[in-house]
Amino acid sequence: MDNVVKNYIDNLYNNFISTIASDLKGKEFFLNKALDNSAKMVIQANASGKKVMFIGNGGSSAVASHKALDFWFTGKIRGLSFSDYTNLTAISNDFGYQNVFSNQIERFADKGDILFAISSSGNSENIILAVKKARNIGCKVLTFSGFQNTNHLRKLGDLNFYTPSIHYNQIESIDLLLCDCILEIILGYDKKNN
Fold first, then answer.
1. What is the Cα–Cα distance from 126 to 119, expressed in whole angstroms?
2. 159-162, strands of its sheet edge to edge
3. For all residues of the chain together, what is the average pLDDT?
4. What is the per-residue pLDDT across 63-105, written as a single tens digit (0 to 9) for each?
């Protein structure tokens, strides 16, 4: 049993340090620099009265809901997740599941807001359409994905975090950690400035 846990933690650590960060043009950054840039992006948006929005399916939806709460409650940043089951079922029924997030972004996003788009595969149609809608509105986008390095989401964000793993649980855990790191950096800047 000890080896199973140790191996899992070792694999999680190795996948975390192997996470690749890139911009919209595909230029790669050191992970710590990309996390810092993401934090600064959120700080600037928050200072301008903008909000952060989180989307994801399945386990990534749980990450999205958790992080929206953390950014709001701990970071004092307006954050929301579009994972409410009533909204998801109503929009899916009336507009199709592929539009479940883009429909909400169309109604709630403002130019300058930031979308955190989380998808283990990076190929979920509803996530891709939501990112495109957010970009059309003028939102900044941070993406979090895994599986294949050619996934579609990896090319759509102002900053993209790609974890080279094929295991949902590890990708989702790392996505959570990456968002945690961004918030911790923001809190660190707050402490320096106060």
1. 10
2. 28-29, 20-23, 159-162, 140-145, 114-119, 52-56, 79-81
3. 95
4. 999 999 999 999 999 999 998 889 889 999 999 999 999 999 9
What's the 3-state SS for 87-147?
HHHHHHHHHCHHHCCHHHHHHHCCCCCEEEEEECCCCCHHHHHHHHHHHHHCCEEEEEECC
Selection from 129, 168, 186 nearest residue 15 by Cα? 168
Residue 151 and residue 119: Cα distance in Å, rounded? Answer: 10
Average pLDDT over residues 130-158: 97
Mean pLDDT, rounded, for 101-127: 97
CA distance linking residue 69 with residue 92, whole number of Å: 24
**Residue closest to 63 by CA, chosen among 137, 194, 173, 170:** 173
Whether the per-residue pLDDT at 194 is higher than 70: the answer is no
Residue 60 half-sphere exposure toward CB, CA atoms < 13 A:
23
**What is the widest separation between alpha-carbon atoms in the chain?**
50
Percent of the chain past pLDDT 90, that is, above it, reads 91
Instruction: Kindly provide the b/e burial profile for residues 143-181, where b requires at least 16 CB atoms within 10 angstroms of the residue's own CB.
Output: bbbbbeeebbbbbbbbbbbbbebebeebbbbbbbebbeb
CA 184/CA 35 separation, integer angstroms: 10
Measure CA 147 to chain center: 15
